[in-house]
Design brief:
Elements (H helix, E strand, L loop, with lengths): L2 H5 L7 E4 L9 H14 L5 E4 L22 E6 L6 H8 L4 E4 L2 H12 L4 E4 L25 E6 L2 E7 L5 E5 L2 E2 L5 E2 L9 H9 L4 E6 L1 E2 L9 E3 L6 E4 L13 H4 L6 H17 L8 H11 L7 E4 L7 H7 L7 E4 L3 E2 L2 E2 L8 E2 L3 E2 L2 H9 L5 E4 L3 E2 L5 E2 L2 E2 L2 E2 L5 H7 L2 E5 L3 E2 L3 E5 L2 E6 L3 E2 L12 H7 L2 E5 L3 E6 L2 E7 L5 H5 L8 E8 L9
Parallel strand pairs: 1-2, 1-8, 2-3, 3-4, 8-11, 9-12, 11-14, 15-16, 15-21, 21-26, 26-31, 33-34
Antiparallel strand pairs: 5-7, 6-7, 9-10, 10-13, 16-17, 17-20, 18-19, 22-23, 24-25, 27-30, 28-29, 31-32, 32-33
């Protein structure tokens, strides 16, 4: 079927679901055809979107932007909003309904909807911004539907998340065989292809799949990710890219295995591609200090998840700190092992050992399989709450943050003490601050609770907040300074720069001097 014909299948008011992860797995050519139809005819209107990660790349001409024109969108439910420029703007201006939900919850809701279940019950999200007592994930005044409820079972609190009822799935694969079965051999990740498609079929809807090629033979049954019996239309587009910056990287799919040195070279090339695309942020010496100190929390054999930003630097920093190298890195997208990629190829991994559906990965995380997670922080308050998801009208989204921080045995927040222009240098294994940042990261009350300090204390998590000048630990009475960088004044450089006075350990010690070598 031609993409323009497939675009006619979407009707006014449809609830459309996608299976992409960031810039990967998105059926862009099909999406573009739907957007072109709207610009030419004004149809389809009032669409509702439900998907996991933000389906955009900070570019108004790519991905979901094709289907984000005013009047075309009525509601969006996603874990991540910042890369979707038009949708983000409409949500901030209260022009559409918009809800922010944890990535793992959305993944599991696809699975629930595929079996016609009303939703899921979990502790994930309690005491955060998705708890209905804190807004229930609603991002503006137009978002009035109650998608989350508090429940009590055997004397314990849980959250109930309402499952969607999608009517159209727009998906992507690699090959459609003679019977319409879809395989994904060139996709770097799977996400949740069957659950997404089946959620639509369970609701009597239509499944449209964009593929790179057709086969006149039957596929290997072990490789089929979407059965042909639930596919309504297939669109062929031969120029599919794995991600927005890579046509095809065989090291992501297991087609080839690389030596460790070669794997590092591949990831350096990915960094270069991201820089060329304007999507690689500058890393400085202060970030390196934080990553080195964070890497000291690695123990032999631990299972690890890395967030974006400074946490991405932890594996490289661990080599300089002689940390154990027998660790297993994981990515929310469904990859276990190998070397996670970065930037617009985030979600993939070079030399991955296991690739399974995202819902299974969150089963693993939510079930306690994660030993330690390294994540960033935008705001931190005196009781240890963290905000990464929103400031003012700037909507970012929680992504997988809530699942990770509420299920990992240990959380290590990695972030500079202040944001916006912070400068310093190392001299003689000591830290010197030359210019303070413009924005306080430590504030009296976070604007939105993306991670709850109270929740962490209740379940007995070990929580660290690592900055370039000091380390805090979460206690039942609030955050406590336990380490201070050599060369830093406790009063002048830390306490006077905070709007509240933190607890100070009776055993305050210097941060490891190895963190403060010049690079």
């Amino acid at each position: 079927m031609h993409k323009t014909e497939a675009a006619q299948m979407i009707k006014n008011g449809d609830e459309v679901v996608f299976n992409g992860f960031g810039s990967m797995g998105f059926p862009e050519e099909l999406c573009e055809a739907v957007g072109t139809r709207f610009l030419e005819t004004g149809q389809p209107r009032d669409l509702k979107y439900f998907f996991g990660t933000g389906q955009g790349v900070w570019d108004e001409s790519r991905m979901i932007e094709h289907m984000s024109h005013e009047g075309m969108v009525k509601r969006v439910i996603s874990s991540h909003f910042t890369p979707m420029i038009k949708i983000n703007r409409q949500a901030a201006l209260n022009q559409i309904e918009a809800y922010n939900m944890p990535l793992g919850i959305i993944s599991h809701l696809f699975r629930a909807a595929s079996g016609r279940k009303p939703g899921i019950i979990t502790k994930i999200g309690l005491k955060t911004c998705v708890d209905p007592r804190n807004g229930g994930g609603a991002l503006n005044a137009s978002s009035k539907e109650k998608l989350v409820q508090v429940m009590e079972i055997d004397g314990e609190e849980y959250l109930f998340y309402k499952a969607p009822k999608p009517t159209v799935a727009m998906l992507r694969g690699t090959t459609a065989d003679i019977n319409g079965n879809i395989t994904m051999e060139k996709e770097a990740i799977y996400v949740d292809p069957f659950a997404t498609a089946m959620a639509v079929k369970a609701n009597g809807g239509k499944v449209i799949v964009q593929v790179e090629r057709l086969s006149s033979e039957m596929a290997d049954l072990r490789k089929v990710k979407i059965p042909g019996i639930i596919v309504d239309a297939i669109v062929v587009e031969s120029e599919q890219y794995q991600s927005m910056i890579e046509k095809y990287n065989p090291a992501y799919t297991g087609e080839i295995r690389l030596l460790d040195e070669d794997a590092c070279h591949v990831l350096e090339k990915v960094k270069a591609l991201n820089i060329a695309a304007g999507r690689k942020r500058h890393r400085n010496m202060l970030h390196s200090i934080i990553a080195k100190r964070a890497s000291m929390e690695l123990k032999d054999g631990v299972v690890v998840n890395l967030g974006i930003g400074i946490p991405e630097l932890v594996p490289e920093a661990s080599k300089k700190m002689n940390a154990p190298d027998n660790i297993k890195l994981t990515v929310e997208s469904g990859v276990i092992g190998g070397y996670p990629s970065n930037g617009l190829s985030f979600g993939a991994a070079v030399n991955g050992e296991v690739l399974h559906d995202e819902a299974y990965q969150f089963d693993f995380y939510d079930g306690g399989g994660l030993d330690i997670t390294f994540v960033g922080a935008m705001q931190v308050d005196k009781i240890g709450n963290v905000n990464v998801s929103r400031t003012g009208n700037k909507i970012i989204g929680v992504g997988g943050f809530i699942n990770l921080t509420q299920s990992s045995k240990k959380i290590v927040y990695c972030f500079p003490f202040a944001g916006g222009g912070l400068k310093g240098q190392c001299r003689d294994h000591k830290l010197e601050i030359h210019q303070e940042g413009k924005y306080q990261k430590f504030i009296e009350h976070v604007e939105e609770i993306s991670a709850s300090g109270e929740f962490s204390v209740e379940i007995g998590q070990e929580v660290l907040y690592i900055t370039e000048r000091c380390v805090f630990t979460l206690t039942s009475e609030g955050i406590m300074i336990t380490e201070i960088a050599p060369g830093i004044s406790l009063e002048k450089d830390i306490i006077e720069k905070m709007p509240f006075k933190p607890l100070i350990s009776d055993n305050l010690k210097p941060m490891d001097s190895r963190c403060f070598t010049c690079e």
